[in-house]
Amino acid sequence: MKYLVIYESTATGYSAYAPDLPGCITTGPTLEETERLMKEAIEFHLEGLREDGLPIPAPTTTADYTIAA
Question: Which own/partner contact pairs does 32-35 have at CB distance under 8 Å and 24+ positions apart?
Answer without folding.
Answer: 34/7, 35/5, 35/7
